[in-house]
Design a protein that fits this description.
The protein has 15 helices and eleven strands. The chain is of the alpha/beta class and 319 residues long. It folds into two domains: 204 residues, Rossmann fold; 107 residues, Orthogonal Bundle (Helicase, Ruva Protein, domain 3), CATH 1.10.8.80. Strands 2-5-8-1-9 form a five-stranded parallel sheet. The protein starts with a helix and ends with a helix. The C terminus is likely disordered.
């Protein structure tokens, strides 16, 4: 898997010119890229969510568009619309901003449920249907959506079906003092995003995405994933556990992470590392548990700590 490791290393190095001190977030972003998985960036304003999406798009030379979600945004504003052409006496489809490689849905929870649902087919099947006609989306295709977890006024919480289609939920977080000092020095004259160039070809991602499936996942690791997901469904503090889509996301992301790190096999530590960003947003915590300060992230961490690997050790599973 050297080629995948080299490809993602080049991408990571370029993105770090813009995003400083967030190596783990960039790594998870590239894992999602290899899986063609969608990302929900949930964090306070000003921490670099939009820059992260722009830096990825610029690095792969992909088509990037940003949609500012508001309550008056309509589904056709995203998917596109059929317009009658008087010269040909027929309807012509004019693609919306969804027909890109990377779509940034900024403040997605400010869009109405009707508009949010316009993304469901695109996120699951890489296609959209308008007026009964289905149109394929370009590849790779990734939706990166942002939302502010603090401000709830005038927002429409994402339904479970929408949340489940995001492979990961990531939080960029505040930089450290040293990292913020470096940010100030870097941005004194011009933002590096304005000069960030393409370092890889977007078309190269598709064969790498297929190559990821060749990474070996031992049966012990597969059982480990299944046990972890099963525990979310039986947890007394949850009204909704992880779906089979979550199991597949853990499986595929584990393969991508292993390939990114130069391995041809998945180890249990890969699954532990990926569990929180992949599982937490898919869980629904009971109100009484929330009142006690119990969050989906805390519950996932406890499940990871309590899930047995099996009869064989991690070292045996890695062989």
């Amino acid at each position: 898997m050297t080629s995948i490791s080299s490809y993602t290393s080049t991408l990571s190095h370029n993105i770090k010119k813009v995003i400083i001190g967030k190596d783990d977030i960039i790594e998870l972003l590239l894992v999602s890229l290899l899986c063609e998985g969608h990302i929900l960036l949930e964090d306070v304003p000003g921490v670099g969510k939009t820059m992260l999406a722009r830096a990825l798009a610029a690095s792969i030379g992909g088509v990037f568009r940003r949609v500012q979600c508001t309550p008056d945004l309509l589904p056709n504003d995203i998917t596109g619309v059929s317009v009658f052409n008087q010269q040909t006496s027929s309807f012509e489809f004019r693609p919306g901003p969804l027909f890109v490689n990377i779509l940034l849905a900024d403040e997605i929870n400010r869009a109405t449920p009707r508009t949010q649902s316009a993304l469901l087919e695109a996120m699951q099947e890489q296609q959209v249907t308008v007026d009964g006609i289905t149109y394929r989306l370009p590849r790779p295709f990734i939706v990166m959506a942002t939302q502010n977890p603090i401000e709830y006024e005038g927002t429409f919480p994402l339904p479970e079906a929408q949340l489940d289609r995001f492979m990961m939920r990531l939080s960029v977080g505040y930089p450290s003092t040293d990292e913020e000092r470096l940010i100030l020095k870097t941005l004194q004259r011009e933002h590096p995003i304005n000069t960030l160039g393409k370092v890889v070809e977007a078309d190269d991602i598709v064969p790498f995405q297929k190559q990821v499936w060749e990474v070996n996942v031992d049966e012990t690791v597969q059982e480990y994933i299944l046990k972890m997901v099963a525990l979310t469904r039986a947890h007394t503090e949850l009204t909704l556990g992880a779906s089979p889509r979550a199991s597949l996301a853990l499986f595929k992301a584990g393969q991508a992470l292993a390939a990114l790190r130069g391995r041809d096999h998945v180890i249990p530590d890969d699954i532990k590392y990926l569990a929180e960003p992949i599982l937490a947003h898919r869980l629904m915590v009971r109100p009484e548990a929330e009142l006690k300060g119990r969050s989906d992230k805390v519950i996932v961490r406890e499940i990871v700590a309590s899930t047995p690997l099996g009869l064989r050790t991690a070292q045996e599973a890695a062989r």
